[in-house]
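Q: Could you fold this chain for me?
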Amino acid sequence: MPLLYLLRSESVAGLRAAIYEAADRGILCNDAEVTSSRWPKSVQPAVPLWLASSLNGIPYDPASGQEALAILRSALQAMYLDDEPGFFYMTLHDDKGKLPASTQADVHDAYKGMYRLLAAPESSAPAIRLLGAGQTLGKVVEAARLLREDWNITSEVWSCPSYTRLMREGHEAERWNMLHPLSKKKTSHIQTCLGSRQSPVLAVTGYGQHIADQIGSFVSAPFVALGADSLRETNGFPSAQWIVIAALKALGDEGTLSMRQAGEALKRYALA
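A: Sure. Below is the predicted structure, expressed as structure tokens.
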């Protein structure tokens, strides 16, 4: 029977020991993030790398209790009813209830790796699409507000509890299409969500930038990733102001805005 394993571990060794006890089949919930640490998300840098490369496990970084519950329900369905092999991993942290509530239908897609949290205003296409995971999602929501109020820029906010799952499913769809050239093409979940629109996509993670970078090849629009190691001046997650700077620069690189606005934002938020 799969185990629901609650633990606090900052190392790969601790997680591997738990996986061994669970016979490589269970749901690991790690609350290391509630403790202070010099590591991003209070785990050693090897942890997200190991999780991303462990093909028999799927890592999640839920942003809220609502997301964690949706992922847990789907994981139990997969393991107990569908008898799927492997393990699931979730980071846990305090839910301060500051995120907008989602519908049950939308948050159900948290298990698939992403769902839309905030749409752009009606009759207005988003100038940029912002993706966030875990505790960085709150920073992304705040950045969307700053973009709207300070710079009159519309944005769309997506929650991405698992960049790794999105990446793997993207590769699976590509492989299937290559092996079945005469069949109808499969579309991965991230491609279904983001479509073929060309408004830039900015993906943010509390881990190293490489975790969000995993989905870059499946985004048809200009793509930028931002992580805990992207900005040497910051300590921990990218702030909402730094996310705004990255968004303005992405729009400047695309030619939608003058690059001067990114420079003005650096001065306005006292980041330069």
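A (continued): The chain has a mean pLDDT of 92.
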